[in-house]
Amino acid sequence: MRARILSLCHCPIPRQDHQHGDKVDAKIINLTPVLGMRDLGCRRVTLAPGCHAWPFHFHHNNDEMFIVLKGKGSVRLGEKRYPIVEGELIAAPAGDADCAHQIINDSDEPLTYLCISSMNAPDVMEYPDSGKFGVLAGSAPGGDKAERSFEHYGMRQDAVDYWQDEG
Length: 167
What we know:
This protein has 1 helix and 13 strands, in the order E-E-H-E-E-E-E-E-E-E-E-E-E-E. By secondary structure, it is an all-beta fold. The chain starts with 15 loop residues before the first strand and ends in a 12-residue tail after the last strand. It has one helix at 32-35; strands at 16-20, 24-30, 40-47, 58-59, 64-70, 72-77, 80-85, 89-92, 101-104, 111-118, 123-127, 132-137, 150-155. The protein has a domain at 16-120: Jelly Rolls (Sandwich). It is globular, with a radius of gyration of 17 Å. Helices cover 2% and strands 44% of the residues. The chain has a 6-stranded antiparallel β-sheet. It has a 4-stranded antiparallel β-sheet with strand order 4-11-12-13, with no helix packed on it. Strands 7-6-9 form a 3-stranded antiparallel β-sheet, with no helix packed on it.
């Protein structure tokens, strides 16, 4: 693999439309494969006004960093919400609910940012607003889904005893 240079302004990679309901509307370009990266993920995300890309969440095994390229909005970090503008860097290390994060475009113009993350698998994600969790193995969040050997989302309150149905 060789080092690469890629223009973020004239990116030749097809974008993915990521939509769910009326509050999730993002245009995502996964830069990781074309850059040849294995252990570091990178996506360019553009949020429509009034929208976000993912639920409020945190990772147990992956750090994330966000660089605001254009526009303004806000970020939820733990229990607080902060305004964000072009040029700002946001860190969301792996951890607990204090590291939960969500970028929201609460402006009238598109908001574009880079999402850079470690690509560790397995990972466990938790979603404090809903009480949901997710477990991924085989490929990290944002990684190749064809390589994923296990993916499960559930509710924390549905936990069972370790020995249930084991005889």
